[in-house]
Amino acid sequence: LVQCDSYINFRSDTDENDIRDIIGILRNGAGVDILQSNIEGKEGWAKVRSGGLEGYVAKKHLLEGEEAKKKAVEYMAPRVTILADKLRIRSTPEKAEGNTLSSCAKGERYIVLSRSGKDYLQISADTLEGVENAYISSKSENVRLEYGLDEARSLNLRQKVLNMYDNLGVSKAQDYINIRSTPEDKGLDNIIGKFPGFAGGNILSEENGWLKIQSGSITGYVKAELVARGQEAEQLALKHAQVMAIVNTDSLNVRSSPDLSAKAWTKITKDQRYSVINQLDGWVQLDLDSGDDEDGEQGAFVSTRDNNVSVSYMLYEAFSYRPAQDRENQAAKRRSDLVNFACQFVGNPYVWGGTSLTHGADCSGFTQTIMAKYGVSLPRVSREQAKTGSKVSSENIKPGDLIFYANRRGTVNHVGIYIGNGQVVNAASRRSGIRIYRWNYRTPVAIRNVLGE
């Protein structure tokens, strides 16, 4: 019987530092069959079978024997076991366009809350971020109802990504595609969002060379020629899906090491997808940003206790973006032009020490080069840039202001440009390149106006 704060990793091998070994998860109270307990050369590990998976878990999280049998009574509940190779989880008890929340894989178990009509079961949605109601088909060929313990959940690697979409479309752009409110190109006027390179979405309809798509929280129109469909979309999705984390609470402490006693040096927020570097039992290591330090990768660990964070293979999705178009005076026009210019380079690479907007820049090289085009000379590194201009409060921030972030030692090591709509454009990291994030994707430490207006 698994005993932990939230969940532990189910591995194909016992290397705790290799994220590729993770094949599933076991939640607190899950049952396993122990196949081998004392394995030569793999001390501290047990080989187990659960939920159709076979692999290794850390023995320190297992309760065995009579003690496990007594404790198991507390976790018994009506559950449904998935028999189908794939089964969609929906927000309403019907097969309808756009109501797919997630998917479950063969062998997984879910707590049943109630029956909804003759064709659907309402299941517990405690592992789905921001979801109140979740339903799956109750057809006998798809599921089996029984009373028992939870078992392993398969991560199913990248294949599970395909089950998230009813009619998958994948961006073929290397950078971003503009999403528009109407099926026509009206320049900056009808842009409502950005569809990142190799991001995924549901295709809702097609008309006159435009696709209506729904991706993330955005529904709008993109040029059909820029979106892969059918088998091409599936191949791109499997190639570009990444292990990402989504925060399930308003904010979450980030610590310098996987230990609750370690210093919490920043916070991350809801509604932002974070790339995952590694998963340890009870912890996830995130790629926040590399900053402009030569060895910029820093300890960024979040606890998985209380289901505060969900980890899965995912595609990037669209996000809201409206170009700055403030023309009320010359100063506002300059700021609008600056942020629109900066956003042209989203999707280009991060290169430590670089200042090229096309071939690669680090965070401060990016801001230095952008500002230079608009007549502002900045020092080379972010900690020196943070001393320039004038201080700005978060209530008075304007597009074009610089936002600074600190490393775990409290030293400024990262900078981005505020672009309005609660967003920042920044050269984030080697993994992410130049990206648009929420301005408080981690805790800002300073905001500076270097434009002097």
Notes on the structure:
This protein is mainly β and 453 residues long. It folds into four domains: 7-74, SH3 Domains (SH3 type barrels, Roll), CATH 2.30.30; 77-156, Roll (SH3 type barrels), CATH 2.30.30.40; 168-240, SH3 Domains (SH3 type barrels, Roll); 326-449, endopeptidase domain like (from Nostoc punctiforme) (endopeptidase fold (from Nostoc punctiforme)), CATH 3.90.1720.10. Helices cover 11% and strands 41% of the residues. Strands 31-36-32-33-34-35 form a six-stranded antiparallel beta sheet. The longest helix is centred in the last third of the chain and has 14 residues, at 330-343. The relative contact order is 0.10. The model has no long low-confidence stretch (mean pLDDT 89).
By CATH, the topology of the largest domain is endopeptidase fold (from Nostoc punctiforme)
Structural class: mainly beta
As residue ranges, the low-confidence spans are none
Q: Main β-sheet: number of strands, strand sense, barrel status?
A: 6 strands, antiparallel
Mean pLDDT: 89
